[in-house]
TrEMBL record:
GO molecular function, one term: manganese ion binding
One Pfam short name: Cupin_1
Signal peptide: 1-18
Tree of life domain: Eukaryota
Identification of the protein by name: Germin-like protein
GO cellular component, one term: apoplast
Gene: LOC108980165
Length: 209
C-alpha cells in the first residue's frame, strides 16, 4: 500500500511538472501582440533559436548620427521571447551620438566596452543626470525616461546594453518630431521652435508637412 505522504508528494510533483513551460521561442509565422510572439511548437525549436551572433559585428556608423545599433530583441532573437530580457550593441564613431530616446517597455543597463562615452538621462521632474563613462563603466536608465549617449573620445566607442524586456521598444525624439508628416505648425505650437528651423530639421530627417 502506498503511503499517503508519498502519494500526495507524487501528485504535487507531477502537477508542477505539467504546469512548467520552459520557454516560448517566438514563432514569426504569427504577428507580434502586446504580450509578445506566439510560441513555436516545442518540436520545431532548435538550438539556433537560443543563439544570436549579431552582436559580434560592428554596427554601420556611416549615417547622419554616426552610430550603428544592432538589436537582439525578440523580433531578432526568438529565444528571448517571453523571458523579460534582451540586448543590443551600439557603435558610435568619433563625433557620433545616440540621440535622446526612450524605451517604453524596459529599463536599460549600458556597459562601455571601448572608448569614452558621455551619457545622461532626464527624470520625470526634469532633473538631469550625466556622466562621462570609460571602458568597464555601466550606467542604468530607468524605464521610459529620456536618455542619450555620445562619443566623448577620439576613437570609436562601443556599448553593450541589456534590457528588462524582450520587447523594450525604441523611440527617438528627433525622428518622432521631425521624421514624419506631423504638421509644421503643430510642432511649432507645441515646441516653441521657429517654423523655418522645423522645416530645416524635417529636410535633414526626412519629415514632410
Amino acid at each position: 500500500m502506498i503511503s499517503p505522504v508519498i502519494f500526495i508528494f507524487s501528485l504535487l510533483l507531477s502537477s508542477s511538472q505539467a504546469a512548467v513551460q520552459d520557454f516560448c521561442v517566438a514563432d514569426f509565422e504569427f504577428p507580434e501582440s502586446p504580450a509578445g510572439y506566439a510560441c513555436k511548437k516545442p518540436a520545431a525549436v532548435t538550438v539556433n533559436d537560443f543563439v544570436f551572433s549579431g552582436l559580434g559585428i560592428p554596427g554601420n556608423t556611416s549615417n547622419l548620427i554616426k552610430a550603428g545599433v544592432i538589436t537582439a530583441f525578440a523580433s531578432d532573437f526568438p529565444g528571448v521571447n517571453g523571458l523579460g530580457i534582451s540586448m543590443a550593441r551600439a557603435d558610435i564613431a568619433v563625433g557620433g551620438v545616440i540621440p535622446f530616446h526612450t524605451h517604453p517597455g524596459a529599463s536599460e543597463v549600458l556597459l562601455v566596452v571601448e572608448g569614452t562615452v558621455f551619457a545622461g538621462l532626464v527624470s520625470s521632474t526634469n532633473e538631469v543626470y550625466t556622466q562621462t563613462l570609460q571602458k568597464g563603466d555601466i550606467m542604468v536608465f530607468p524605464q521610459g525616461l529620456l536618455h542619450f549617449s555620445l562619443n566623448a573620445g577620439n576613437s570609436t566607442a562601443v556599448e553593450f546594453v541589456s534590457f528588462s524586456s524582450a520587447t523594450p521598444g525604441l523611440q527617438f525624439v528627433p525622428f518622432a518630431l521631425f521624421g514624419n508628416d506631423l504638421p509644421t505648425d503643430i510642432i511649432a505650437a507645441t515646441t516653441f521652435l521657429d517654423e523655418a528651423e522645423i522645416m530645416k530639421l524635417k529636410a535633414i530627417l526626412g519629415g514632410t508637412g
